[in-house]
From TrEMBL:
Organism (species): Prunella fulvescens (Brown accentor)
TMC domain location: 487-593
Topology relative to the membrane: Multi-pass membrane protein
Protein name: Transmembrane channel-like protein
Presence of keyword Transmembrane: yes
């Protein structure tokens, strides 16, 4: 009614938007105050009030207030006295329309033109200023307004604000130079957050492998390359080594068997037995066995810390309710700093895709079922799970048969091509079984695409776990993998290398036939515009499977993280190109708010912890080879630490405290037990804190809803009072 509209129009928050001259006058006064200060504060300390109050200035009650044009002219005059960065920030914080801001910017540019021309005649551009302007143009991010050039007479380093602005531009340049920076925005806008989560997960894996590779490269690989060992005669390169990892790669830095078991910087290492060494021993010997063991352990520790940190960050971002997301996307999603046509189109696609995801979630929630439909659905789901479990049992038996009978009777006369048989069978199962699971999902007819993806992830994860557990048992039974004369650790490393290469080849074939050829068949033969959809569950589980192979093989092949990094980089660009050219957006859009958390959790608990358990069992219980590797001649790999502590104590008596620390802290099982209990307690309390925050968020949302009801109630009461007065 008119009474309610009158009440709403008299609210303090609505009065500021009616008087444009009041806003301009207020910011004119604020600009004058800022100009009169002797020392200008940094840009971050400026006031960010977007809706200033008019009660401080009494502009509404001033009878001698100037017209709008005069106020605008005064504001432009005051803005000219500020630095370009402060002027730009002041214009951004003004609660004015874009049309009014364009008018102000146009007047500023007109009055700055003659000043710039006079300045150009006075002093030409210096090389520093030219470099700063070029950096400002290059570093402008896609979709944001370009940074304005500084005053012509000022050097870029004449003030802290100039140095800080140059530093921010360099940071934005580094961010824009990241691989796939614009591609991720394009994927998110066209295909939604569900497909984008796959590529973000791939970038996370790339970061984890980079840190592992850096640690092993610095402390193991480079030092062993500086002090090379006496190798056997190298075999000629035939090209098949790229697939099998054998041949000339066998006695190289790629595998465990190449690394020595001596102190690298000891000058007496190469002296013949029985002869005296004239040189003194080094003060701090670099023991290769211990460096090898500790580098692998530190790489696993750093990976664990990064995984836990990534999991906590993604879990914190995913906590929250999507109750008001639709209203936020409708009214607050647009970024008004976007000015380029390409970025505007990309943001339009992104906003439309997010709205489709939110509406799809609401539509899937509001579909009730009858009891007969629920009973029939339960029977279908039960039969589908029985078929899935039966197929998993068949896969385990197939892998067991090929792993037991592949090497029997071949010995040294086996050809390198036969070594690819087991990886070929495993990769074939990993490629065909997800297709069967997709057919089962079509039969089950899940309403929610989130539920369908979770079920597919569980089934594919069970398939990968069954195969990897069988392979780990196959690798630890050394008599099956290698003969007694060969280094079994190198054979395991070669096996893992072959599995990674074969997995990459099958991924390329799946991209070629499953996406490109299928798209051509749909368009050319069937004459339909429909394209294949991107299978998120299968592709993510392929990444987790490849990363698990990398963690299993870090000890047996220290350069395996480098191979995985190359594989991930190629996969990123191949999958991105195939996605843009061959795939369509999901037919049922859904929001992947918790999907990144699920991916990181699956990577941490089944994958990383399983690889850590396999490595721990190898170090503590399995006897290493007697003819090669850094741990030759030892009963277990763990004994190398004890030997090194004794050698270190004899060579330098001043660091006997380290031997005490090693004996009482590192070898103390009680301390390890208490550390494990403390870690579990910290994780438990962190989970409880997150649950408490979730409850607080729910209470605050309920309170916000009640506040809205209170406002409606007060408006109704005020409306009744106005109607009574009117009568």
């Amino acid at each position: 009614s008119s009474a309610s509209l009158q009440i709403l129009a008299s609210m303090p928050s609505r009065t500021i938007g009616r008087n444009l001259g009041a806003i301009i006058s207020q910011y004119c006064n604020r600009t004058a105050q800022l100009r009169r200060r002797s020392s200008r504060p940094p840009l971050q300390q400026l006031c960010r009030a977007a809706r200033p109050s008019l009660r401080q200035y009494d502009l509404e009650t001033d009878p001698t207030r100037a017209t709008l044009e005069e106020k605008r002219r005064l504001l432009v005059k005051e803005l000219l006295s500020l630095s370009p960065s402060q002027c730009s920030h002041m214009l951004l914080t003004m609660p004015l329309s874009l049309a009014e801001k364009r008018i102000l910017r146009r007047q500023l540019s007109r009055q700055r033109g003659p000043v710039r021309q006079r300045a150009h005649h006075r002093a030409p551009f210096s090389p520093c200023r030219w470099s700063r302007v070029c950096i400002g143009l290059v570093c402008t991010e896609a979709g944001r307004a370009p940074v304005q050039a500084p005053a012509p007479l000022l050097s870029p380093f004449s003030s802290p604000q100039g140095c800080r602005g140059l530093w921010y531009r360099l940071l934005s340049l580094l961010r824009a130079a990241q691989p796939g920076h614009y591609a991720l925005k394009q994927i998110g806008g066209r295909f939604g957050s569900s497909v984008l989560s796959y590529f973000l997960f791939l970038k996370t894996l790339l970061m984890l492998n980079f840190f592992s590779f850096l640690i092993l490269l610095v402390f193991v690989v480079v030092l062993q390359a500086v002090y090379p060992t006496a190798t056997v005669s190298s075999q000629p390169f035939t090209g098949l080594e790229l697939l099998t990892g054998a041949g000339c790669f066998t006695h190289s830095l790629l595998y465990y068997g190449y690394y020595s078991n001596v102190t690298l910087n000891d000058p007496c290492t190469s002296s013949p037995e029985g002869s005296l060494c004239p040189l003194a021993a080094p003060l701090l010997p670099y023991n290769m066995p211990l460096a090898y063991l500790f580098s692998v352990g530190v790489s696993f520790l750093v990976t664990c810390i990064l995984l836990v940190y990534s999991m906590s960050c993604s879990f914190r971002e995913s906590v929250g309710s999507s109750t008001g997301d639709l209203a936020v996307k409708v009214f607050c999603a647009w970024d008004f700093k976007v000015i380029q046509r390409r970025s505007v189109k990309l943001q339009c696609e992104n906003t439309c895709t997010q709205l489709k995801e939110l509406l799809g979630e609401r539509r899937s929630r509001s579909r009730p079922r009858s009891r007969c439909q629920c009973l029939g659905r339960c029977l279908v789901v039960l039969l589908a799970w029985l078929l899935a479990l039966g197929s998993l049992s068949g896969c385990e038996l197939a892998v067991h048969y090929f792993s037991e009978h592949m090497h029997m009777g071949s010995g040294k006369q086996q050809q390198e091509a036969i070594l690819l048989l087991l990886p070929l069978v495993v990769s074939l199962l990993n490629a065909l079984m997800p297709r069967l699971f997709s057919l089962l999902a079509v039969w089950e007819k899940h309403d929610s695409p989130v539920t369908q993806v979770y079920v597919a992830i569980i089934r594919n994860l069970m398939l990968k776990m069954v195969i990897l557990i069988r392979l780990c048992y196959h690798w630890l039974s050394r008599s099956v993998v290698c003969s007694t004369e060969e280094c079994w650790e190198t054979c395991v490393g070669q096996d893992l290398y072959r599995f990674m290469v074969m997995d990459f080849i099958f991924t390329l074939l799946d991209t070629l036939f499953g996406e490109l050829i299928w798209r051509l068949i749909l368009e050319k033969r069937l004459k339909t515009k429909q394209r294949p959809e991107f299978d998120i569950a299968r592709n993510v589980l392929e990444l987790i499977y490849g990363q698990t192979l990398t963690w299993l093989g870090v000890f047996f092949a220290p350069l395996l993280p480098a191979v995985q990094m190359l594989k991930l980089l190629l996969l990123f660009y191949i999958k991105k190109t195939s996605l843009m050219q061959n795939c369509q957006s999901p037919s049922k859009p859904w929001q992947a708010s918790h999907m990144s958390t699920v991916f990181i959790t699956l990577l941490c608990f089944p994958s990383f912890l399983g690889a850590a358990a396999f490595l721990s069992y190898t170090i503590w219980s399995v006897q290493p080879s007697e003819t090669c590797g850094p741990f030759r001649g030892l009963e277990t790999i763990y004994q190398s630490g004890k030997r090194w502590v004794l050698v270190l104590e004899k060579s330098n008596p001043n660091i006997t405290w380290f031997a005490w620390v090693y004996q009482h802290l590192l070898e103390n099982t009680c301390l390890l037990f208490f550390m494990s209990v403390a870690l579990i307690a910290v994780i438990y309390f962190n989970i409880q804190v997150v649950r408490g925050r979730w409850r607080v968020i729910c209470l605050l949302q309920e309170q916000i809803a009640n506040e809205g009801k209170d406002k409606a109630f007060l408006i109704q009461k005020l409306q009744s009072v106005y109607e009574q007065r009117h009568r």
